[in-house]
Amino acid sequence: MDSTESALFLASMEDVVPLKGERRVPTSVDREEEVRRYQAAKRLQAIGLLNHDVSCITPVDSLAELSFRKPGIQGQVFKLFRQGKYPVDAQLSLKGVGLPLAKERLYDFIENAKGMGFRNVSVVHGTGINNKPFPALVKSSVAQWLKSLDGVLAYHSAPQFLGGIGVTLVMLVKSDEARLVSRETNHKGVKIR
Fold this sequence. Notes:
With 193 residues, the protein is of the alpha+beta class. Helices cover 40% and strands 12% of the residues. The protein has a five-stranded mixed sheet, with helices on both faces.
């Protein structure tokens, strides 16, 4: 740019005033809003996969003992779990709740429990002897839903002192922090910390 072009530019810009305020250009959706929307969509999708259509639920006898464990759960760990030897960190009651609301509450409860690092929780569903269209409707639904939820490693009907067959104990995955503590504690039988 030569001196005449520079002088012409400065003359044309002499009445320009700089913009005041934030220098960041706002986007239509900020990052926190994106995360919130993603989590809400993920929740709706997961809840949608939990079927509450009565014709698709396999009935369980109201007095039956529920039991399920994924491969990799040690036999002794599962034995202690089903005997109620591990502390229950939280409890959810689904007694008197309809299936659509029950599946939402169960999903939210499990997700929150995992987020808080809980290992063992319980779900109170009752025996459902008088449920319609078949006995143990909520109990049967809970048994089916727990198998499909991420983070559920095992479940078993509670021993009598924890509520018996109207309550299901649920074992959840360890949090990353709990895994680290276990790894440090069990490293060659010597606690490192």
